[in-house]
Each structure stands twice: as structure tokens, then as C-alpha cells.
Task: inverse folding
């Protein structure tokens, strides 16, 4: 898979810098926008990945996210929880997260009696869920399987050209991919607008500056607000946004 087809983050995610409003309705809208942008950022959302899903007889499978080794050495964007940063060693410890997304034609053609592979409630191990009922809401773009999350089933939300999992808060259903220690590129950049809904982005570059900024607020870099970009296995940029 070519790097430029994996790196589809900026157009969707940078739009988050204009987030506005602080009411409950606005907060839900902001969270929705954030989650949709992260769907665009995933390697699974690239045109090449969508054209090459895994296959299994009678089971709709998520679009392949790439192996652990590919993520460690390739060029990706992903949700991450940064747990440690070492300026001297120029490296970061992080837990990488993904979520299930599916080709539109697979979900549009899904019927009761078939099965879909999911990571239920963010479980690390995937399971095959038999579809007992399926409802499609054309207005919202949500597909509810087995009554949706309100009845213990699954909701899928159409985002860009794929369907992806959704929670009550409009986030994807994240599951842990693995814990990595990744080197920082010497030209690493950080864009941080997490201080408030109307906050301007604070831009930082270079390993020392980024390490200092991340380390000063280490508990607040989570999969819900942080997107890490890598180039050839090195952390090249970090984006943190405000979330309600």
C-alpha cells in the first residue's frame, strides 16, 4: 500500500480547528465531526484498502487495518494514547487503537441470517455476530443490527465511503491494536487545540519542543483526542483536538 494512500488525515481532521458551540447539542455535533474525521484518517478509509477487504464465507469482515509490523515501520495515521515521551532517546511510548469499518456495499447488502465480524465493546479479539435483525435509517445513515446498541446490538454509521462502528457518544468503538515504542522524527510537529472549543492551535516543532509539550500534560493524550502520524515508522506529527 502506498504511503500517500494511507495518509488521508489532514483534509478531514484540520476542519476540526473551526469547532464551535458548547451546548449539549453542539457537543454531540463536535464529537460526531471528530469521529468522522478520524474515520477518514484511518488506513482503512483509503481507496486501495477499501478495494481489498478480507473475505470469509457468509461473514462480512472489517476492512484490513494492516499488520502490527506494518504499523511499526510504515506511514499511517491512528488514534493513540501517548503514555511516555523521552526527549533524550527521541522516542514515545503509546497504545495504538483502531476500530471496525466496512465497505458500503457489504453493509448495504447485509441481511438477517448472515454474520458480521466485530470487536464487541472494544474487545481485542474479534467475534462473528449473527444478524438476527437489521434496520437502515436513510436520514441518519445509521444501520442498526440486532436492535442497535440500545438493545445490546451494534450500530454502524456511514462516514465518507465506509461504515464504521459508533457508540452513544458518536465515537467509533475503539479496540487496542498494541503498545509501541516509536522513534520521533527530528522534524516532528505538534498541533494542539485541546484547551477549549474555540482555542487556537498551538504549534510546536522539533523533538525537544514536542517532547516537552507532551510530557507536561501526559495524562491527556488519549485515543479520543489524539491522532498520531508516522512516516517510515517514525512519529512525524501529532494532532490533539478539543473534545467535549
Result:
Amino acid at each position: 500500500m502506498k504511503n500517500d494512500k494511507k495518509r488521508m488525515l489532514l483534509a478531514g481532521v484540520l476542519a476540526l480547528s473551526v469547532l464551535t458551540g458548547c451546548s449539549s447539542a453542539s457537543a454531540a455535533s463536535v464529537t460526531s465531526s471528530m469521529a468522522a474525521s478520524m474515520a477518514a484518517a484511518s488506513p482503512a478509509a483509503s481507496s486501495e484498502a477499501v478495494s481489498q477487504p478480507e473475505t470469509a464465507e457468509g461473514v462480512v469482515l472489517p476492512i484490513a487495518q494492516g499488520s502490527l509490523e506494518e504499523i511499526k515501520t510504515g506511514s499511517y495515521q491512528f488514534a493513540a494514547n501517548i503514555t511516555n515521551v523521552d526527549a533524550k532517546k527521541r522516542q514515545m511510548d503509546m497504545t495504538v487503537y483502531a476500530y471496525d469499518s466496512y465497505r458500503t456495499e457489504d453493509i448495504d447488502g447485509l441481511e438477517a441470517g448472515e454474520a458480521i465480524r466485530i470487536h464487541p465493546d472494544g474487545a481485542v479479539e474479534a467475534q462473528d455476530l449473527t444478524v438476527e435483525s437489521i434496520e437502515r435509517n436513510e436520514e441518519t445513515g445509521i444501520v442498526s443490527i440486532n436492535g442497535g446498541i440500545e438493545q445490546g446490538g451494534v450500530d454502524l454509521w456511514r462516514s465518507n465511503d465506509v461504515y464504521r462502528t459508533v457508540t452513544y457518544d458518536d465515537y467509533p468503538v475503539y479496540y487496542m491494536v498494541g503498545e509501541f515504542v516509536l522513534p520521533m522524527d527530528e522534524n516532528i510537529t505538534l498541533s494542539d487545540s485541546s484547551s477549549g472549543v474555540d482555542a487556537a492551535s498551538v504549534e510546536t516543532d522539533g523533538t525537544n519542543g514536542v517532547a516537552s509539550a507532551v510530557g507536561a500534560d501526559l495524562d491527556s493524550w488519549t485515543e479520543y483526542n489524539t491522532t498520531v502520524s508516522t512516516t517510515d515508522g517514525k512519529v512525524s506529527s501529532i494532532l490533539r483536538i478539543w473534545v467535549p
The CA atoms of residues 186 and 207 lie 6 Å apart.
